[in-house]
Amino acid sequence: MNLKMHNNILRMINLLNENDLMTSSELAKELDVDDRTVRRYKNYIKGLKINIITKVGRNGGYYILK
């Protein structure tokens, strides 16, 4: 795992803490990666035992359970 990936994962956690809900596309744009990479980051974050939740549907996205 490289430094850019670590930075992006930390940034994603911060973005999700600052916002109630963000879509994969919003996160991808902020992190300058594709949607698939955002999903990989989400899985890595879950592996750290951080409660990142996926809300499915039209108004879906990711959020961190606080």
TrEMBL record:
Top-level division of the source organism's lineage: Bacteria
Every Helix-turn-helix type domain range: 11-62
Protein's recorded name: HTH domain protein
